[in-house]
Amino acid sequence: MSEPTLEELEAPLNPKQCQFAREYVVDFNATQAAIRAGYSKNTAGSKGFSLLQVVAISPLVSFHARRVAESTDTRAERVRLELAKIGYGDVRELIDCFDEDGKPVYKDLSKISDSSAAALSAHLLRGKMAALTKLGEIDALFIQKHAFEGSEDGALTVVLKTAAKE
């Protein structure tokens, strides 16, 4: 059996309930998601809680959470690959020799490996490592992974898994 489409999941819900499901996966704060979805600030706490009890909302939240996780995984893989290139770059590929003043004479950069080019880029663009590290923090590459599990009664369980050190 194939996974239900977004349209099928949204069909039994009203527009505010659909918006709540989209907003909930932003920060997993039901009160704030209810406010962002257009519910009253005065009743957002109880409304957010009650919306999480609506059986049809749980699969929609899971749907949106999977989409977020998929896009994060793609970006995370790009960050991992770039960090690996930088980490495995070899400076010996960059320098041909040294001139009489002791300054390096660089090789033709079009002929160096991707790893060494990435390492040189990270060195020349000093902010690149900081940016990659920040992306890793944003995507929780270095901290934890999120899994979303739904049960038959419609309850949504958020499972946090600490990433294993490699």
Task: Describe the 3D structure.
With about 170 residues, the protein is α+β, with helices and mostly antiparallel strands. It has a domain at about 1-55: Arc Repressor Mutant, subunit A (Orthogonal Bundle), CATH 1.10.10.1400. It has helices at about 5-10, 15-25, 30-35, 45-55, 55-90, 115-125, 125-140; strands spanning about 95-100, 105, 145-150, 155-160. It has a two-stranded antiparallel sheet. β3 and β4 (about 155-160) form a beta hairpin. α3 (about 30-35) packs across α4 (about 45-55) and α5 (about 55-90) crosses α6. The model is unreliable at about 160-165 (pLDDT under 50).
What is the fold's blueprint, element by element?
Layout: H1 6-10, H2 15-27, H3 30-36, H4 44-53, H5 57-88, E1 95-98, E2 104-106, H6 114-124, H7 127-138, E3 144-150, E4 156-162
Antiparallel strand pairs: 1-2, 3-4
Features:
7 helices; single chain; alpha+beta; 166 residues; two-stranded antiparallel ribbon; two-stranded antiparallel sheet; disordered C terminus; Arc Repressor Mutant, subunit A
Task: Write a concise synopsis of the structure shown.
The chain is α+β, with helices and mostly antiparallel strands and 166 residues long. 54% of the residues lie in helices and 13% in strands.
Biggest sheet architecture: 2 strands, antiparallel
Strand fraction band? 5-15%
CATH architectural type of one domain:
Orthogonal Bundle
Distance between the termini: 36 Å
